[in-house]
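hi! just following up on the protien thing from before. the input was this:
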Amino acid sequence: MTLALYHNDMSSCAQKVRLVLAEKGLEWESRHLDLRAGEHQQEWYVKLNPRAVVPTLIDGDIVVPESNVINEYLDERFPDPPLKPADPFGRAKMRLWTKQLDEGVHDAGIAVLSFALAFRHQYLARGEAGKAMLESIPDPVKRERRRDVIENGLDSPHFRSAVARLLQLYRDMDAALARQPWLAGDRYSIADAAFTPYVVRLEHLDVMEMLAPTPRVADWYARIQARPSFEEAIRRWENPSYLALMKREGRENMQKIKAMMGGL
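and the predicted 3d structure came back as:
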């Protein structure tokens, strides 16, 4: 049975699912969506994914949205090699990691960082079309947060909160990696796949100095990059035009971020 994935090349949530697919050696059909063109907000896609986000997995007649849910589905559907710890407590630790991504790290953390530094310029350049895309975001909290970040950039209060939340995340990761080689234990797991994009985005924005206080996270990321899945799931999908914008805007604002970090 053929798997299909609605995804986007540079989406953090899509990256984590592509990592699991690569780790398991699964073949899948790419159904790429252009987020800047609003393809994820089209009526046909919202019927598959009511939150109008990527990715969405198609497995025959089964539709599975939400990246963290997709990854657990894939691990149960295709259990070899396993990407969840074998013991109940290990699986609980893994889920405690992935749970926090849905509770603020993604939308209020890395997404705000990305929009304030880079993506806001694309929305502003589109004028009324950009405003229409913003208004199409179904979640009112997410919509208003994005609106403020697009209008105010690094001066948005959400930006400082995002930096603080991400720094706490990296400190928590660093503490866990002091006890064990991988986030949830002695073996690479869904937790490691899920958190990889939240360091990849720092690299893409050229703000890796944010990891200076957490050297174990930097070492973990180096080991992640050495895995074959990284090339397959991340590098081959990198979009040069987006990378140029992201790196330029991130590099130009790194000193402001460092000053902000000093007060956190």
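The beta strands are 3-7, 28-32, 56-59, 62-65.
The radius of gyration is 18 Å.
cheers
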